[in-house]
Amino acid sequence: MRFLKKINIKKITTHNFWLKIISLIIAIIVWLYVSGEITKGVRV
């Protein structure tokens, strides 16, 4: 059972920190764009 390591919260949050921040910003931009397009109505 040595493969079950203790979870280190600090390592999880700081590992690839800038990659997580950039991906979060991109996700927010995409979310706002899609939400805006849905509220405008879909034109067929």
Q: Cα-atom Rg, whole angstroms?
A: 18 Å
Shape: elongated
Report the end-to-end length measured between terminal Cα atoms: 57 Å
Q: Could you tell me the number of beta strands? A: 0
> What structural class do you assign from the helix and strand content?
mainly alpha
Main sheet characteristics: none
Order of helices and strands: HH
Which properties best describe this structure?
single chain; about 45 residues; 2 helices; about 70% helix
What does this molecule look like?
The chain is built from 2 helices and no strands. It has 44 residues and is mainly alpha-helical. It has helices spanning 9-14, 17-40. It is 68% helix and 0% strand. The model has no long low-confidence stretch (mean pLDDT 83).
Summarize the structure.
With 44 residues, the chain is mainly α. The protein is 68% helix and 0% strand. The mean pLDDT is 83.
What's the helix and strand layout?
Layout: H1 9-14, H2 17-40
